[in-house]
Write a structure and sequence with these properties.
By secondary structure, the chain is mainly beta. Helix content is about 10%, strand content about 45%.
């Protein structure tokens, strides 16, 4: 299970939240800014504006979380406009858009504003 760490950009006396993502989580999927318009000759016109980390949506599912970490995560969403999320693909700055915690697995979507670091996948030990 990949580890995910949520923290605040500024000092937070409550500290960070460390989670272990379960199957179904998506961290750092790549997507290009592309539009496709069909043409009358049966082909398509592609407009490719490139890649931007701000197009990334990270989906995290968690089936084990302590009550303290759950409260820290809720407080982070309520009181901080931006959060850091660290996962296997890098460190991102963004916001938790949706957080569903009524039933397991808990689920949240993190909308990326910018990517702060990028981990080199070639150097990972498998």
């Amino acid at each position: 299970m990949p580890k995910v760490i949520i923290s605040t950009p500024d000092f937070n006396p409550n500290g960070t939240v460390e989670l272990f993502a379960v199957t179904g989580s998506k961290c750092g999927n790549l997507r290009r800014r592309v539009t496709r318009t069909p043409t009358l000759d049966g082909k398509a016109l592609l407009s490719d504006m490139g890649f931007a980390a701000a197009d990334v949506e990270i989906e995290i599912r968690v089936d084990v979380i302590s009550p303290l970490d759950l409260q820290k995560l809720k407080d982070g969403i309520r009181f901080f406009p931006l959060l850091h999320l660290s996962c296997q693909d890098g460190v991102y700055l963004g916001v938790i858009n949706e957080f569903v915690f009524e039933e397991l697995p808990f689920f949240f979507t993190f909308l990326v504003k910018e990517q702060l670091t990028q981990h080199d996948k070639e150097s990972r030990v498998i």
